[in-house]
Amino acid sequence: MGMSAKDERCASPTDEEWPEVEKAEKLARGAALKWASGVFYRPEKLEGLGHYRNRETQRNGSIQSRLKSTVQSYLEGVSTGLEQLRSAVQEVQSVCQDMGAARWALLDCADRFQDLQQMRALMAEHVQLASVVQVLPQLFSVHEVFSHTLQLLREQHLLEAHAELMMMEHLRDDILSQLHLRGLSNAQATVLSYFSCLQELNESLAKQLWGIVSSSLQLVREDPVLFVTAIRIIEREEKIDDTLLLDATFLPPGRPKGWRQKFYNVLQETITAAHFNAIRMDAEGPGLARHLAALQRDIVSELRVVKDLMVQCVPAHYNILSVCTATYHRALSGHLQDILREDLDKQALFLLLEWVLRMYPSPEVMGHPDLLPEVDVSSLGPLISPELVDQTERKYVEKVKVSDVLEWMQRTLEVEFKEWFREEEPEMDHQGFFQSALPVIVVQMLSENIQVASLITDSLQQKVYNMALEELEAFLGRSKDRTVPKHYVPYLLAAGGQALWDAVPLFSWELLQEQCSAGHLMLLLCSFQPLYVQLPSRKWLSGSQLVNSMCEVIDKYTKEFSHVRKPAFTVLLMESELLVASQYLRALMQKKMVCKSKEERGQLCDRLLQDATQLRELFCSLSLEAVFALRELICLKDPGLLSLEVLGFITKYPDVSDEHISTLLDLRGDISKDVRHVVLEMMAQNPQPLPEGYRPIFSTILVPAPELPFCLRKAKCA
């Protein structure tokens, strides 16, 4: 069915606003037509058409009636809402009218409010005056109580005086607290003026308390009641401080007093002033010894009083013994540091070190049986710092060195050296050994200083020991730094006599071995220098005169060595042999000669064998084995086996370098670059560590640097 124009006009806004409605309607109509055509397509189905029409008509009627009912209910709800809105508007208008009326009424009462403000101010003044009037009787009695309290203090009735003082302070604080809460600051100033006398009472009481505390060590022995009274007053004040500090709203003037901390401060200042004030005293040994003895006596005595008596007079939380112990320790530490800043002699330095490191922690002072176990000196830390101990030890060693060792050794050497220029040899004992009092005196003096230092600490002993080693070395060196007298070697042997070797437990064996043989080796080396200049040379290859001359020089010195006891005699022989071997090898490696032929190389091998054999027979030792081993390298006929031979050589003498081996290969004169490269490469791949106890021989031998090729302009280098 088509719609009329009126229906179209009515539907048009809805279709424009809701296009989905039109689309849905079309879809519904299409679905209905499709269903109807499908159902009534067959003729037998047309019989039920009337029945279907009636059923659909009934259903449409039911739907329409429900829709009408729903719309009617909705319209009724809208009507009710409109009525409620209308009623609310009327009520709001009524309230606005009432508020306007109230506003005008308030404006009319503004003048009356100003009158009320003036009345409030008058009432506040009345309350303030009433509060003052209320406490006037108590305020008027303050001066009377003050006079009575002052009299109690003069008579040392401290507890009663303190009770009245607390009563007045409580009254003042209570009045000030009330005024503070009411904001009456003007009245507070008036009240404080009445209580100004409390400051004087507090100062007077405190002065008596601190006087008692400063005499506490004497009072606890003679009259502990007065000291206990002072402690009770201090604890009362401490509790008042704690209570007021918990109430953060109001803190009265003069609080917190902190009298417990003041007690500690006065006690510490008293201890320090009694014993450790900077007073001028004799810094030398006797005066310092008396001062340290007095400190030792007083510290032990007073700590015993604290432990046995004072501890019983104070609360446990005071830890009075720990406080006093720490005070003595700290004050003594500062006092000793002040003393150490003075220019002290060696006796004073030794005395201080002994007292600080030995006496102070011992049973004589802080480890006293009467103080144990409560006093634990280990918990206090060092009396003086390790750095200051080390500095003081060094000062002591320097003083000993200057005043004892250097000056005394110099005088001793001067006397000894006068004997060296005599025409006869030094004295001998009944066994034919050289003897001299010089080494005995030197060793005795050094050993005594070491033994004295061992009484203090191991570190001081080590410092004195090191100083003694240095001075012993200098002493042995000074004995060589002189114009050579006629019998220089015998006197030098006597100066390095048995006394020095007996001191091996005290001093270094290596030092004695090195220094006691240095002078003789220097002379031996000087005697060998003209002979070693000829080595190696073709003149040397042709005869044995060189080694014969060397043996004569060695024999001369060994005869003088025979007047020295063992182990000095053995050391001199060993050092002489090592010197001969090293200088012999050094001369061979100076690149003075290169073998030009096989025959000359054989001649070199024979000469090396004869020299080494002759020298070894003279010494009967093993240091010359290096010459024999070196000879094997030169005598090897097959250069291809050099790598193996050199490997054995460096295994036996691990301090030999590639420069040494290269020099020996140059001496052969027949080694190609390829063979040299193989040998040096093998050495680089097989580094040898120095075994323990091995005494180097090649490391002391320097090989001359290779000569640079000479070139002139663009010509080839020679």
CATH architecture of the domain at 515-706: Orthogonal Bundle
Largest sheet: none
Tally of helical runs: 28
Residue-averaged pLDDT, rounded? 78
Class by helix and strand content?
mainly alpha
Query: From N to C, what is the helix and strand string?
Result: HHHHHHHHHHHHHHHHHHHHHHHHHHHH
Shape: flat
CATH topology of the domain at 515-706: Tetracycline Repressor, domain 2
Strand portion: under 5%
Which class of the domain at 515-706 in CATH terms? Answer: Mainly Alpha
How many beta-strand runs? 0
Instruction: From the alpha carbons, calculate the radius of gyration and give it in angstroms.
Output: 59 Å
Summarize the structure.
This protein is an all-alpha fold. Helices cover 72% and strands 0% of the residues.
Please supply descriptive tags for the structure shown above:
718 residues; mainly alpha; Tetracycline Repressor, domain 2; 28 helices; disordered C terminus; Exocyst complex component 3 like 1; EXOC3/Sec6; exocytosis
Task: Write structural notes for this entry.
It is a single chain. The chain has 718 residues and is mainly α. Among the domains are: 279-384, no CATH class; 385-507, Tetracycline Repressor, domain 2 (Orthogonal Bundle); 515-706, Tetracycline Repressor, domain 2 (Orthogonal Bundle). The protein contains 28 helices and no strands. It has helices at residues 5-17, 19-39, 49-108, 110-140, 142-154, 158-182, 185-194, 197-214, 216-222, 224-246, 259-275, 285-308, 320-340, 346-359, 386-420, 437-454, 458-478, 488-495, 498-502, 509-532, 538-542, 545-561, 568-588, 598-619, 625-635, 642-652, 658-668, 673-685. α5 (142-154) packs antiparallel against α6 (158-182), α12 runs antiparallel to α13 and α15 runs parallel beside α17 (458-478). The N and C termini lie far apart (133 Å). The model is unreliable at 1-15, 497-505 and 710-718 (pLDDT under 50). Belongs to the SEC6 family.
